[in-house]
Amino acid sequence: MNFDDLGIKRLFSDALKKQGIKTPTAIQEQVIPNILNGKDLIVQGETGTGKTLAFLLPLIQLIDPKVAEVQGLILVPTRELALQITTVAKGLADLHDIHLLSIYGGKSTADQLKKLARKPQLIVATPGRLVDHLGQENLALSDIRFFVLDEADQLLLSGFKPDIEQIMMDMPGSRQTLFFSATLPANIKKIAYRYTYNPEYISIGENTSDPSLIEQVVVPTTDRQKFPALQKVLMADNPYLAIIFCRTKRRAGELLEKMKKYKFNVDVIHSDIPQNKRERILRRFRKGDLQFLIATDVAARGLDIHFITHIYNFDMPETVETYVHRIGRTGRAGASGYSCTFVAEHDEDQLYDIEKHYGEAIKKRIVKIGKD
């Protein structure tokens, strides 16, 4: 099967071929025809399955370039994800003469106002900044035909629900709503069905991250010994590229200072880091100029960086879904991966839930601190 078979116009499929993309992924085979047929969708699929193109291709094809109003809105939880989607969308939008605009915090409001004056037909946005523009009546959503919530589980778990509902009140009820989520716990699924009309449910098991290829270990430790244990593990492993997850921005900042003190090649991304700096850090990490990237869950959401060999959970994730998402940054495209989680006594309940999810105990890695 090729993209032409799915109903995608030749000008788009030819452009994809030039990028080496010739065959649709499983998620694209199921999603694209449903969008072209006007169906509301609830799609469960991880980053790396091709879901961005799955909604961008039909949306851009269906947007009318002759109508100078906002027809499509893609809502995402983070600035990084907005930037990634905009980068992918721009080449396709240019082919169809569609004006595209990304709206997110950390970017000049004056610059966004100038671009809004050009009447964009497709907007990629984070909720907070979009609500600001709506409140100031800088744009209207009364002509929206297509509404995409990408990484919807994270949008809703991060407290954006009031903003999303406010945004939806400004859109016509006849819109087509497309709900994409990496995980679908019961509370998120309930909201998804409330946001959509008679939706088609699609779940994609295929993922470029294969859990069977990820070696998982836990390091029993204490809060006091956690950093010395991490230091010892990193020096022993010497990973090619590694992400170290912390639960909060404060914890991430403290860990950065400690690691820099010991001359690790490291930087950090979280929501308080200015956008242009975050983009520079991610470029360095992708190029391999950084060995270690410290991240909070929200900042790392949606990142699809190849060749990450190791994941370290310096702080235990709050939910099983977050753990699965974290370690899924490695073990991609058939490559092996390694995840290491530091577990203090107060983390035992979360560890029990994770082991219950996988149906077996996770192997312990014993790290001796102090003199041998």
Q: Regions with pLDDT < 50 over 5+ consecutive residues? A: none
| Average predicted local confidence, pLDDT | 88
Question: What oligomeric state best describes the polypeptide chains here?
Answer: single chain
Query: What is the level-2 CATH architecture name of the largest domain?
Result: 3-Layer(aba) Sandwich
Shape call: globular
- How many structurally independent domains? 2
Give the CATH topology of the largest domain.
Rossmann fold
**Number of H/I helices:** 15
Which descriptors apply to this entry?
372 residues, alpha/beta, Rossmann fold, 2 domains, seven-stranded parallel beta sheet, 14 strands, 17% strand, globular
Short structural summary:
With 372 residues, the protein is an alpha/beta fold.
Write the layout of secondary structure elements.
Layout: H1 10-18, H2 26-36, E1 41-44, H3 51-62, E2 72-75, H4 79-95, E3 100-103, H5 109-116, E4 122-125, H6 127-135, E5 146-149, H7 152-157, H8 161-169, E6 176-181, H9 186-195, E7 200-203, E8 214-220, H10 226-237, E9 242-245, H11 249-261, E10 266-269, H12 275-287, E11 292-295, H13 297-300, E12 310-313, H14 320-327, E13 337-343, H15 348-358, E14 363-364
Parallel strand pairs: 1-6, 1-7, 2-4, 2-5, 3-4, 5-6, 8-13, 8-14, 9-11, 9-12, 10-11, 12-13
Describe this structure in words.
The chain is α/β, with parallel strands linked by helices and 372 residues long. It is built from 15 helices and 14 strands. The strands form two sheets. The chain has a seven-stranded parallel sheet with strand order 3-4-2-5-6-1-7, sandwiched between helices. A seven-stranded parallel sheet has the order 10-11-9-12-13-8-14, sandwiched between helices. Helix 2 packs parallel to helix 3 (51-62) and helix 3 (51-62) crosses helix 4 (79-95). It starts with 9 loop residues before the first helix and ends in an 8-residue tail after the last strand.
